[in-house]
Design a protein that fits this description.
This protein is mostly helical and 191 residues long. The protein has helices at 2-16, 21-31, 36-43, 47-54, 65-78, 82-95, 102-155, 158-161, 165-185.
Length: 191
Amino acid sequence: MVMLNLLIGFFTRFRSQMGSFGEDLRIERTSRGIALEDITAVTKISQRYLVALEQEKFRSLPGGILNKGIVRGYAGALGLDQQDWTERFLKAYLASGQEIDEDRSWTAFASNVGKARIIRHDAAELRLRWFGAILLLLVVAAAAFIGVRFYGLRAGWWSTMMPTQAVSAAFHSAWSPVHKLVSRIHPRFHR
């Protein structure tokens, strides 16, 4: 069995110089009797990416530095030299007309993640500021109304401010629970 594996390994190395990257990778996998599902279970790499490697459909891969990671994981699961297979992948990748832009892609990805977090944080902060400003405005308006009403009741002109008796009665019925609450809290507001 060991001799057979050595012969297969020698044959595939000899053939790899003539064959394609994906085909050689598939031959290595099948010669070891390993299914794609087994590699997916071990590496957690999606089976569609493994198939894309074997079929040399490099456009189906996620791109950038992730491609190297997929090749390393695949080679490692098969017990192959990860560095050698990564170099072979890069040669096949370039030969297929693809450009290697891993640094630019990775930097752009990291930059976009950072920007997205900053934008979400800024949006939340802006909403909180508007909420605080509106709440402050409502508190100031309520305090101003209470102050004017208190002064108007003390001075005696508050009852003459309402144009009709009906509006005054409606407002008084709405205001009386609030007035009772304020009177309980601070007895000085009780008339």
